[in-house]
Specification:
Number of helices: 19
Strand content: under 5%
Order of helices and strands: HHHHHHHHHHHHHHHEEHHHH
Number of domains: 1
Structural class: mainly alpha
Largest sheet: 2 strands, antiparallel
Distance between the termini: 58 Å
Radius of gyration: 22 Å
């Protein structure tokens, strides 16, 4: 009797294939003449790059989104951003729910992996809340944008507002207003505040959303302390996000205060607004109110760090994530203090969480490093511009020092692949390559001490 061949894929492998499939489908749609503003097909490399940057919610573009694409092309980009931000698996699960299809154990495991959750308990309900919450926040963001864009652009302002809201919430950083991102609105408080709010809300993570809602509901029934009632995950995500945004804004204010190409000569209020936006947008949003190539070297280096860290887990942001960064910092402190355990907010962090945080940081760094080396081989750009490009692609940020559009075909393919690896996540990538997880052998290898540091 012949054995039937069956290809069994792990959840991380399915997620990678799902994202890759969406990128290819999107590239073929954008390659059509109807997607181009002038009716002529763009090069497939540019179509592939645009599809990848949309699905990976990055924001790096080789062609100006506002002028290169038709209404159809922009609609395709918007759909790719929305699906990419929520996650292909989330959209598939929601369709199954709407069609009253049963979601089995395998499907639940896939959803769990796509959100990087620790449990399958309540996974279907969680997915519903994610989609509904996303649409509500994006709708509110669009309405707030309309107060500025409708008076300026008329009916077209509605379309611009919807596009910008989805792009900001999904931390994509792609806009259809102009070729210089949001630089024309650098000193507009409404646009700055709404964009920052959408970026932070989308990047803080869905787990934190529902934990805050839970605590508020509990507060209405009984007198409790809001902060102490939050889970450890929420505390770490909120605290680290606040520290990075505030300290980042303060540093940008100092570094750019006398820079004639960015803030010199502006009132203090405008300088604070620009500094705050730069600190927030580096959380993997990709919008810019300051041309990144005009930043001082200290500001650019700081931006690299903030981009690499990114947003929080189980959200629309990229990077190694705030919680990962916080766990690594706490682990370093515990080693310096010669403590065996890693503690945060009166709780002990598990060794598995510390190991995972280390793995995420190392794999992400290697992706950015290898991408930088490869890109330096095919372009003569300044090293800082190359690092900015590759870290931005790895962390799915979308900020660039004006290098993306000048890349040759090989350079575009390198950044495309880097964005893809950054979006699927370093751990998913490692699991997908290694295949099924194997249990450790009962008999372990001999132990021997080594010197570290």
């Amino acid at each position: 009797m012949k054995k039937r061949f069956s290809l069994k894929l792990t959840a991380p492998q399915l997620i990678m294939i799902a994202f890759l499939s969406l990128i290819i489908i999107g590239s073929l749609l954008l390659w059509l003449p109807v997607s181009s503003a002038d009716g002529n097909s763009v090069s497939y490399t540019d179509a592939l790059f645009t599809s990848a940057t949309s699905v990976c919610v990055t924001g790096l573009v080789t062609l100006p989104t506002a002028t290169a694409w038709s209404v159809f092309g922009k609609a395709v980009i918007l759909i790719l951003i929305q699906v990419g931000g929520l996650g292909v698996i989330t959209i598939m699960a929601e369709l199954m729910i709407l069609l009253h299809r049963k979601i089995g154990i395998a499907d639940r495991m896939l959803i769990q992996d796509s959100f990087n959750l620790n449990t399958m308990s309540g996974i279907v309900k969680f997915t519903k809340k994610v989609v509904l919450g996303t649409l509500v926040v994006e709708a509110i963001g669009a309405l707030l944008y309309m107060t500025v864009f409708v008076p300026e652009f008329g009916v077209k302002g509605i379309w611009i507002s919807v596009f910008n809201s989805v792009s900001a919430f999904c931390n994509a950083g792609i806009d259809i207003i102009s070729e210089n991102s949001l630089c024309d609105y650098a000193l507009n408080p409404a646009i700055n505040i709404v964009t920052c709010m959408l970026i932070v809300i989308g990047g803080i993570g869905y787990i934190v959303w529902w934990d805050i809602v839970r605590v508020i509901k509990k507060r209405t029934k009984q007198k409790i302390k809001l902060w102490s009632s939050l889970t450890l995950h929420s505390k770490i995500a909120l605290f680290t996000t606040a520290v990075l945004i505030i300290s980042g804004a303060l540093c940008f204010y100092i570094f750019e205060y006398k820079n004639p190409e960015t803030m010199n000569g502006l009132p203090v209020g405008d300088k604070i607004l620009l500094s705050l936006f730069q600190s927030v947008t580096t959380r993997t949003a990709g919008f810019a109110t300051i041309p990144q190539q005009n930043l001082t070297v200290p500001s650019s280096i700081l931006s690299l760090l903030l981009m690499f860290v990114g947003g929080s887990p189980v959200g629309t942001a990229g990077g190694i994530k705030t919680v990962t960064f916080a766990v690594l910092a706490a682990s370093a402190v515990s080693v310096i203090k010669n403590k065996n355990d890693v503690n945060m907010f009166g709780r002990r962090i598990s060794n598995s969480a510390v190991r995972k945080a280390s793995a995420v940081a190392v794999v992400s760094f290697m992706i950015a490093f290898i991408s930088s080396v490869l890109l330096s081989c095919v372009t003569s750009a300044h090293a800082l511009d190359i690092f900015y490009e590759t870290v931005s692609a790895t962390a799915t940020v979308g900020l660039s020092r004006n290098l993306t559009a000048s890349l040759n075909t090989v350079g575009k393919l390198i950044i495309t692949f880097t964005m893809y690896l950054g979006r699927v996540g370093p751990i998913s990538l490692a699991f997908a390559i290694s295949g099924k997880t194997k249990n450790e052998n009962i008999v372990k290898n001999p132990f021997e001490e080594i010197s570290v540091g």
